[in-house]
Specification:
The complex is a heterodimer of chains A (about 350) and B (about 300).
Chain A: E1 2-4, E2 7-9, E3 12-16, H1 29-45, H2 54-58, H3 61-71, E4 77-80, H4 96-105, E5 110-112, H5 121-135, E6 139-143, H6 159-171, E7 175-179, H7 195-203, E8 208-211, H8 219-228, E9 232-235, H9 242-245, H10 247-261, E10 266-267, H11 277-286, H12 301-315, H13 339-347
Parallel strand pairs in A: 3-4, 4-5, 6-7, 7-8, 8-9, 9-10
Antiparallel strand pairs in A: 1-2
Chain B: H1 3-15, H2 29-39, E1 43-44, E2 49-50, H3 51-54, E3 57-63, E4 83-89, H4 98-113, E5 118-125, H5 131-139, H6 143-148, H7 157-182, H8 203-214, H9 239-267
Parallel strand pairs in B: 4-5
Antiparallel strand pairs in B: 1-2, 3-4
The chains are: A alpha/beta (about 350), B mainly alpha (about 300).
């Protein structure tokens, strides 16, 4: 819980990780390149006083995570979103078992989400069922640019992905978090394109698709498809810290999101351990749209409360104290998708 | 290439003569300048900016052809025997998309190979997850499909076109939003009838005209500004939505361009000296001291 100027904010950090990128866990040069890329994001976007030494960045462990999120970070509830990257790391990047253990120990504070890779075929489907029986998760994180043998990417509209979504539907895994990366098959296409989210969101209207990083670097494509698909949400992982270095850009991101998809489908996250939640929460509560940006209305306290926690709490049925809840806003000016406009959108 | 960009690139070159691997200060500067000039036509297809402005050219090395005793101040085209040109490229992260990385590297090799007086060209991409693959493909002139094998289906042409269209969309929005900001009485719904001749001369209009040419749209003064990629105008009721969509594209392109520049500066100390400022979407942290005045809720 964060309190400022008499207002109470219930905080849900919707994208956190417990990773191990230490040299002894790196399988090859790509393991180092990957964590170095994260660390450059961290160095580039963080305020000086929030910078971590490289060694701290490689591995945090559960104890530090609990402190950074819940003691120092105002977070009421956080959701693990694992990335395996088993082609880069010997015992995976995301430490699934440790994260699951922590979530089991602190069910009021942590939710464990799982992952799958549709290229694992029938075996992977069986494993998903078995994992679900053991861990009982309600969400999965998919990284479409994950390397897997000869393949370095897949699309959400691939037939095998659909097989997995059908099983998700059957098992009650209703939140699908999506992270696009730099590779896809074939490489002829833009790997960051979110058009495949459009397809699966139309075909699986009972599932919720949370596009992480609000589609960055394809904000415009994300806004357009999320505008048309009411079951598509935007996760603010990596977008949040732009508040510090590039506040005008961040203002435009938030302004566009609220214009296109409204205030009820945007979810805060620190993307821990890329960043820690404390400064992001404090600064977001203080953040305002620059005065000269006449195309956007100022952010309201209610909008900030929804983005910082209430929206994600709704997705995961996380109990929120009665007095902190807020009603949904009206539809956006752009409205939900009209069926006859769907094809027009898909062509562009 | 515009005059503005040439001047800007020349300014940077003058400022950083000592950085190049050739390490020769003035010596051989003429030849290196030719190489850099040739590379300035290579665009990052996603950001629609020259790789020379983005700081992606890490080093340029020009050696006279074996057996010639060339005057180092000579221009390249006097070396009939053909010089060896070695260029290293660098990108903001190891995980920049390999398809874009390949395009920039192979476009660089093509541009340099076409330069008079050049014999052999070596272009290498440094510190990328696909450096080995891409560098081997370039050395063998294997082409896109030969480089990426089973991961490549046809070509990267459509990928290029997607971003040329986005660059046009962003340029169009910049011009129209500038008009709206300058004249508060102008309604958003009215921008559908603005013609090229109504735009004030300057950088934004030049950029729009250039991008129209790139995607094959006419540039007559009477042509409408707000058009789709096929050059078709929007019916009046669709104008505000078209402008809003274009705006999200512009925000995205500007945001990505600045984030990529910033990451390059973080990754390679001193890389900022190799970058030409991008006024579009610039913020105080990009060395432009713009005041940030926030809205009040009433």
């Amino acid at each position: 819980m964060y309190t400022k100027d008499g207002e109470k904010y219930f905080i849900v950090d919707a994208h956190v990780a417990l990773w191990d990128a230490r040299p002894e866990n790196q399988r090859n040069i790509h393991g180092k390149q990957f964590i170095d890329c994260f660390y450059d994001y961290h160095r580039n976007l963080s305020p000086d006083e929030e910078l971590w030494p490289y060694e701290d960045y490689l591995y945090q462990g559960g104890e530090r995570l609990m402190k950074d999120l819940f003691e120092d970070g105002y977070v009421d509830h956080a959701i693990f979103q694992p990335a395996y990257l088993s082609e880069f790391y010997k015992r995976n990047f995301g430490q699934t078992e440790e994260a699951y253990g922590l979530a089991t120990e602190h069910p009021d504070k942590l939710t464990y989400n799982h992952r799958f890779d549709p290229r694992d075929g029938e075996n992977g489907l069986e494993r998903l069922r078995a994992d679900h029986e053991r861990m009982g998760f309600r969400g999965v994180k998919l990284y479409t640019a994950e390397w897997n043998g000869e393949s370095r990417g897949y699309k959400l509209s691939d037939p095998w992905t659909y097989r997995y979504f059908e099983v998700c539907r059957e098992l009650g895994i209703k939140n699908i978090h999506i992270h696009k990366g730099p590779t896809i098959r074939p490489l002829d296409r833009d790997a960051f394109d979110v058009a495949d989210v459009d397809h699966c969101a139309s075909d699986f209207t009972d599932l919720t698709f949370v596009v992480e990083h609000v589609g960055l670097p394809r904000l415009e494509d994300f806004c357009w498809i999320a505008n048309q698909e009411p079951n598509v949400h935007g996760g603010l992982a990596v977008a949040m810290p732009f508040m510090h270095t590039r506040p005008r850009y961040f203002a435009q991101i938030i302004g566009e999101l609220i214009y296109w998809i409204g205030e009820d489908r945007i979810e805060f996250s620190s993307d821990y351990a890329l960043w820690t939640p404390r400064w992001l929460v404090e600064r977001f509560v203080d953040f305002q749209i620059p005065e000269d940006m006449t195309e956007y209305a100022p952010l309201t306290v209610a909008q900030k409360k929804k983005i910082l926690g209430l929206n994600a709490a709704k997705l995961y049925d996380i109990p929120v104290p009665e007095e902190l809840r807020l009603p949904d806003a009206d539809e956006t000016e752009t409205g939900p998708r009209q069926p006859e406009r769907a094809d027009l959108g898909a062509q562009q | 290439m515009t005059a503005t960009r040439t001047e800007a690139a020349a300014g940077v070159m003058a400022a950083r003569g000592e950085d190049v691997r050739q390490g020769g200060g003035r010596e051989g500067g003429g030849r290196e300048e030719d190489v850099r000039e040739a590379l300035s036509v290579v665009l990052d297809p996603e950001l629609d900016e020259p790789i020379t402005d983005l700081g992606f050219v890490r080093s340029i090395e020009v050696s006279p052809a074996a057996g010639t005793d060339a005057d180092p101040d000579d221009r390249l085209d006097t070396h009939a025997a053909g010089a060896l040109v070695v260029v290293h490229l660098r990108l903001p992260t190891s995980f920049c998309s390999p398809n874009f990385a390949y395009l920039m590297a192979s476009d660089s090799k093509d541009a340099l190979s076409a330069l008079p007086g050049v014999g052999r060209v070596v272009v290498e991409l440094d510190d990328h997850h696909d450096s080995d693959l891409i560098n081997a493909g370039l050395a063998a002139d294997a082409g896109y499909r030969g480089t990426f094998g089973h991961e490549a289906e046809e070509s990267l042409d459509e990928l290029r076109w997607i971003f040329r269209r986005k660059a046009h969309t962003a340029a169009m929005e910049r011009c129209l939003t500038a008009l709206l900001r300058a004249d508060r009485s102008l309604a958003e719904s009215a921008v559908g009838t603005v013609r090229l001749q109504d735009l004030p001369a300057g950088r934004e209009k030049d950029a729009l005209l250039r991008r129209r040419v790139t995607i094959g749209l006419p540039t007559e003064p009477r042509d409408l500004v707000l058009v789709d990629e096929a050059g078709c105008p929007y019916p009046p009721e669709a104008v505000p939505m078209a402008l809003r969509r274009a705006r999200s594209t512009r925000i995205s392109v500007d945001g990505n361009a600045h984030f990529c520049r910033g990451l390059l500066r973080t990754r390679y100390a001193g890389a900022g000296a190799d970058q030409v400022d991008r006024p579009e979407g610039a913020e105080p942290s990009d060395h432009h001291l713009l005041p940030l005045i926030v809205k009040e809720i009433h």
